[in-house]
Specification:
The complex is a heterodimer of chains A (562) and B (344). By secondary structure, chain A is of the alpha/beta class. Helix content of chain A is 33%, strand content 23%. In chain A, a hairpin with a 2-residue loop joins β1 and β2. Chain B has a two-stranded antiparallel sheet with strand order 1-2. In chain B, α3 packs across α11, α4 runs antiparallel to α10 and α11 packs parallel to α14. Classes of the chains: A alpha/beta (562), B mainly alpha (344). The interface between A and B is medium-sized, with 39 and 30 residues.
């Protein structure tokens, strides 16, 4: 069964392909794709030429992913045609696209975790002898490619042991191994530090020198301006603009994406909180002093005498594989401030949030919320003493999809008056409350009886925010509060979080989006390998400095910016 | 940053893991004990070793059936039913046709059919895999009990031992390993072949991929559904060979529910053997040893307690060993185990 697919991979074919360079590498012409009544793509045309980087820009739900899925053969268009290497083609499946030299770097990596890097790269197109995988040859080929394109990765490591950035390099190598002339990358920078992002953009640029064309999906304007040759902006399934970085600006692109002017600037009205010290002065929280374990930020001298609503001391917690994920972490949040936790995903942020909210066992240290010891408390106790929690995965932990908007609006309080009495739910009160949330938080839903599943991502998130905000809370834990939602909803939620802060709630914001952390936070705690490695002031610290800290540099190094 | 240059095979020369040290220490202990008992009482030691290999053959065939499914992401708790159905088919055909070889072919065919049935339910119809396996077990017990003709006999001798020349005269292991009937040899060959195939071949690598991350395998052109069908069906063939072995070589007749729980024991063997054929064979020998020892105790009336208690030995050991294995080596299941795969 291996015989057919494996022979395609020959280094010679690269040279051959380069000689007769097509004019158009990949194009969609008049693509229309419907899902039921929803028109995901409406007469969309895009074109990619050799050696160019095409950025597809748009909000979530604008139709970017649908478009590339059509171009990659995952969906069949209802109208329009796909052109690969100057030829109009009918793609029955991704294999047809792969066979024609189109490679995809998926947003969720398509890698087999326990298998080695080499095996992952050659899977499906294995060099073989008598049915046995020729690993020596596979390894040679992989090393050659990784050397040539600067995609360094240990070929013998198991993929599951690699950091995210390295896994992404494996994904790219997988496409290159199959002689991809076109690389489609779906939100490739979402999981990277700023430095890793720069490196990736450099690698992509290097590929174009080889004549490879790149389609790059993103909603990050900065990256588009920095790296694209051509920009196509999608909104509601249509192309609303095609331009180049030279002819446009970030503001103009944002306006095109949303269809109106947006304001996502800092807007950090300092509500009386002065961040501790200078730029990286929280070298007070360097790994050395943290490892001592006992010192909390609360112990530090501070001009501000505001009440501490969250006091974490030497907290330890394990991840699902019983590896220590939160390592003697200490952190304090005062009333009326937003403390942002910046860090590359997988550095213990999820476990930290779960440990605070009672969803995860703690293996050491203490958590004090509004003066009450909640170490190891059950989630309900944490909730009733006045903690709002916007969980990271709204579908899994934020809502019960098959329940109505109404039921979801009281998930944290249905067991209390006025929503229930004598063990029975009081539907009229619940519905009235839900109606209130829907109105106040602009949740777009046909009715409060609609199942939460059928709402869009942004509206689901607004429903959760509405639920968590409608009680008196001293502390808000917001984990990835705007992940995967449109700019309009992001703006709304940001405004609400700031509003809460100004009313005196302490906010712990955990986000993988550095821009979000920097725009909202009064102080930024940088988390790396389960510890807070630095506490910095977002006004006086640069993205690059924070990026270095996120990558594990010491504060001293980060401060000099080297 | 430079590429870390590690020569091929470097992984194999890594420092010994605790699990490996335990394995080797265990093997050395076993060899030492066997030598000791052989010197002390040669005849009985040989009898126990022969019994060990006899019991292990059936277990390892069942375990290989289970691992082929599980490595592809399909749980198979219907091995018991597959054993029973194919033992019945093998026995009936052998007695009607008058040829043991025809019986073996029938047994394997019945196993393949049972494997395909499991595949059709759990892959094609996406039935819960535990329910699908249970269906096989119940169907096999009901059908074979209903059609079983008490008066029928094999009408000939069961498979007899074949001496492999001078090898059979080796001390200790000679009689136990090299003076066996044909299906035992075949099973041993299959253990080695399947081990190499699973760990080295293109097929084996793709099989691992569809059990761990079928979506990833599909994006690089592996036909997940087809490969799962193939593997689960072939796995049924292995259990079918086990059934034929049971009826035509180990026992020489068919009786109601004759598989006696060994299809489930095979799953324990599979897990203990870390889903590799050689590992499973080692585990099967261990479990086989407890069975053989128990038989020997009963024959000799070694202990003055009711036979039922002595008969419990293999099962008590199973419980202890599986629990202990859970404490020591943390072994992870294939990530997609038990999850139906849907083509987008």
């Amino acid at each position: 069964m291996a015989a057919s697919s494996a022979d395609a991979v020959q280094p010679e074919s690269v040279a051959a392909a380069a000689q007769r360079e097509p004019e158009v590498l990949l194009a969609g012409r008049g693509i229309t794709k419907r899902f039921g009544a929803v028109v995901a793509n409406d007469d969309v045309s895009v074109e990619l030429r050799p050696g160019r980087i095409l950025a597809l820009l748009g909000e979530n739900g604008a139709g970017k992913s649908t478009l590339v899925n059509v171009l990659f053969g995952l969906h069949r268009p209802d109208a329009g045609e796909v052109v690969i290497a100057d030829e109009t083609v009918q793609l029955a499946s991704p294999h047809d696209a792969i066979a024609r030299g189109v490679g995809m770097v998926h947003q969720h990596f398509q890698l087999v975790p326990p298998m080695s890097v080499v095996r992952n790269i050659v899977l499906g197109a294995e060099p073989h002898r008598l049915g046995m995988v020729d690993l020596a040859q596979a390894r040679r080929r992989v090393l050659e490619l990784s050397e040539r394109f600067g995609l360094h990765v240990d070929p013998d490591a198991a993929v599951e042991d690699l950091p995210v950035g390295a896994q992404q390099r494996v994904e790219i190598l997988k496409a290159l191994y199959r002689d991809a002339r076109v690389l489609i990358a779906d939100e490739p920078t979402a999981v990277l530090t700023p430095q890793e992002t720069d490196h990736l953009l450099g690698v992509l640029r290097g590929l174009t020198a080889d004549g490879v064309g790149i389609v790059f999906i993103t909603h990050k304007l900065r990256e588009v301006m920095a790296s694209a040759d051509d920009i196509v902006v999608l909104r509601n399934g249509r192309v609303v603009g095609a331009t180049t970085p030279a002819q446009t600006s970030e503001a103009a692109l944002a306006e095109m994406m949303v269809g109106r002017e947006v304001d996502l600037s800092g807007d950090r009205i300092q509500s009386g909180v002065v961040a501790v010290g200078g730029p990286i002065a929280a070298a007070a929280a360097t790994p050395e002093s943290e490892s001592a374990g006992t010192q909390s930020l609360a112990d530090e001298p501070c001009d501000d005498a505001r009440r501490i609503v969250l006091d974490i001391r030497s907290l330890c917690a394990d991840d699902d594989r019983a590896q220590r994920a939160v390592d003697e972490l200490s952190l304090a949040v005062r009333a009326g401030e937003i403390v942002g936790v910046a860090g590359v995903e997988g550095n213990g942020q999820r476990e930290l949030v779960e440990a605070i909210t009672g969803l995860r066992h703690i293996t050491g240290g203490s958590v004090t919320i509004s003066g009450q010891d909640t170490s190891g408390a059950r989630p309900r106790r944490v909730a009733v003493i006045g903690v709002g929690h916007i969980p990271e995965d709204r579908a899994k932990h934020g809502l019960i999809g098959s329940y109505s908007v109404s039921d979801n609006s009281v998930l944290n309080r249905y067991f209390r008056r006025p929503f229930s009495a004598a063990g029975m739910l009081r539907r009229d009160r619940i519905d009235a409350h839900a109606q209130d949330v829907v109105t106040t938080f602009d949740v777009r839903t046909p009715s409060v009886h609609t199942p939460a599943d059928s709402l869009s991502g942004g509206n689901k998130q607004k429903l959760i925010v509405g639920r968590e905000f409608s009680d008196d809370i001293d502390l808000l834990i917001a984990a990835q509060p705007t992940r995967g939602i449109d700019i309009g909803a992001i703006e709304f939620i940001w405004r609400r979080i700031r509003g809460r802060r100004d009313e005196g709630t302490g906010v712990l914001l955990v986000s993988a989006e550095l821009d979000e952390v920097m725009a909202l936070s009064d102080r930024v705690a940088v988390m790396y390998e389960g510890r807070i490695v630095a506490m910095v002031d977002p006004v006086t610290t640069t993205r690059e400095q924070i990026g270095l800290l996120m990558a594990g540099a010491t504060p001293a190094v980060a401060a000099t910016g080297s | 940053m430079t590429v870390i240059e590690t020569p091929p095979g470097a992984a194999a020369r890594r420092r010994w893991s605790p699990a490996r040290i335990w394995t080797v220490a265990g093997a050395v202990t076993v060899v030492a004990c066997v030598w000791f008992f052989y010197a002390w009482n040669g005849a009985q030691t040989t009898a126990v070793l022969s019994g060990t290999v006899r019991a292990a053959t059936l277990l390892v065939l069942g375990a290989m059936c289970g691992m082929l499914g599980e490595r592809s992401g399909i749980v198979n708790i219907g091995i018991e039913g597959q054993f029973l159905m194919s033992a019945f088919a093998a026995f009936t055909v052998a007695s009607v046709v008058g040829s043991l070889a025809a019986g073996v072919v029938a047994g394997v065919a019945a196993g393949l059919a049972m494997g395909w049935l499991l595949a059709a339910m759990s892959i094609g119809l996406r039935t819960d895999q535990i329910i699908a396996g249970t269906v096989l077990n119940i169907a096999a017990l009901g059908l074979t009990s209903f059609f079983y003709d008490r008066g029928r006999s094999l009408g000939q001798l069961k498979y007899q031992a074949i001496e492999l020349g001078p090898l059979a005269d080796l001390p200790v292991v000679g009689r136990a390993l090299f003076n066996r009937p044909p299906l035992t040899y075949l099973a041993l060959v299959l253990v080695v072949v399947l081990h190499v195939m699973l760990l080295r071949s293109v097929w084996g690598m793709r099989t691992t991929a569809i059990g761990e991350h079928p979506g990833a395998a599909a994006t690089v052109g592996v036909d997940v559904i087809r490969l799962r069908y193939l593997n689960v069906t072939l796995a049924g063939g292995l259990a079918g060979l086990g059934g034929a072995y049971l009826a035509l070589e180990a026992v020489g007749t068919f009786s109601r529910a004759m598989s006696g729980g060994r299809g489930f024991l095979a799953l324990a063997v599979m897990i203990f053997g870390r889903r590799t054929p050689l590992g499973a064979y080692a585990a099967a020998l261990f479990f086989g040893f407890t069975t053989a020892l128990q038989n020997q105790f009963q024959l000799n009336d070694t202990f003055d307690i009711p036979a039922q208690f002595v008969g419990m030995l293999p099962f008590v050991v199973t419980i202890i060993v599986v629990a202990a294995a859970g404490l020591f080596g943390h072994m992870r299941d294939p990530a997609a185990l038990g999850q139906p795969y849907e083509v987008r």
